[in-house]
Amino acid sequence: MPVPVLLVTGFLGAGKTTIVNHLLAHAQGRRIAAVVNDFGAINIDAELIAGASDGVVSLANGCICCSLEGDLLRTLSTLLRRNPKPDYIVIETSGVADPADIVRNLMDPVILREAPLETVLCVLDATAPPAALDDALQRSQLRVADIVALSKLDLAEEGAGARMRQAIRAQRVPAGVVDAHHGEIPPALLFPAGADRAPAPREVGPKRPAEERFETLSWTSDKPVSLPRLQRAINRLAPKLARAKGLFETLEQPGRQMVFQFAAGRATLAPGDAPAPGAARSRIVFIAELGMLSRAELDEIMKTCVAGG
């Protein structure tokens, strides 16, 4: 029996992982396979994912998560050979990915027969200005969508959701728009009601040249960080960052790992699981537009966060 695919796209920090997390946590007996190609997604240690068999981690509720290592078609083939097979496959794209290229891959006749693309969900940050949709990459993410989910409405100012809906209508996309409070979307909108229902046909345009727009810089330290110093460092780096996320231990709370997220000018901290054996005590990934942030500048700023820096 074919396994339907849900493709989740959206710009850096839009809230894709929150939605995928909610789907996995409220699977209601469905076996969901989540394919992720972004650091630290689904709240599973990156080290755990990297060390698992075939890059796959089994979750307590019968769902699984795997990292996207190698090409997408090979990853899907691995999932479809599992026994039992998943009921659904959710693919969370990188925030810098053009989903049109992924849709094109999923139109491969062999994959289409075994894992048909059922729904494309585009996640938009309701706190972002409507002008953000003028960005070529965000327009591409929006135009392939069947459903657009507005995230972070609890953080947005009054009327922001309505303004974003108006901006979406101005793009003349046929997608329906839903509010995703705390990552919640009715499963009936995302998963088919009957396994025998064929997915809608999709037009795939010609492949466009890839545009190298973003770069990733990683920073690690075997020492814990000072939280006040880290806050000052992030304030210095913020104007140049598109996204940042990581795991670290603090001087103030030794032995306790924190999960750090930075998106749309906002930084958040949350308690994490116990550090993986042998992992660096502090590891953060920074994403910036090409040429905006040099390795030397990053290292110079971040070394002030550790004892003796």
Strand order of the largest sheet: 3-4-2-5-1-6-7-8
What's the architecture of the largest domain, going by CATH? 3-Layer(aba) Sandwich
Rg from alpha-carbon coordinates: 20 Å
Put simply, the count of helices is 10
How widely separated are the two ends?
58 Å
Low-confidence stretches: 39-51
Question: What does this protein structure show overall?
Answer:
The chain has 309 residues and is of the alpha/beta class. The protein folds into 2 domains: 5-190, Rossmann fold, CATH 3.40.50.300; 214-305, Hypothetical Protein Yjia, Chain: A,domain 2 (2-Layer Sandwich), CATH 3.30.1220. It is built from 10 helices and 13 strands. It has helices at residues 16-25, 46-50, 72-80, 99-106, 109-114, 136-143, 160-170, 187-190, 227-237, 295-302, and strands at residues 5-10, 32-36, 56-58, 64-67, 88-92, 117-125, 147-151, 176-179, 214-221, 243-249, 257-263, 266-271, 282-289. The strands form 2 sheets. Strands 3-4-2-5-1-6-7-8 form an 8-stranded mixed beta sheet, sandwiched between helices. A hairpin with a 2-residue loop joins strand 11 and strand 12 (266-271). Residues 39-51 have low confidence and may be disordered. InterPro entries: CobW-likC_sf, CobW-like_C, CobW/HypB/UreG_nucleotide-bd, P-loop_NTPase, Zinc-reg_GTPase_activator. Pfam families: cobW (PF02492), CobW_C (PF07683). Keywords: Chaperone, Hydrolase, Nucleotide-binding. Residues 214-306 form the CobW C-terminal domain. It catalyses: GTP + H2O = GDP + phosphate + H(+).
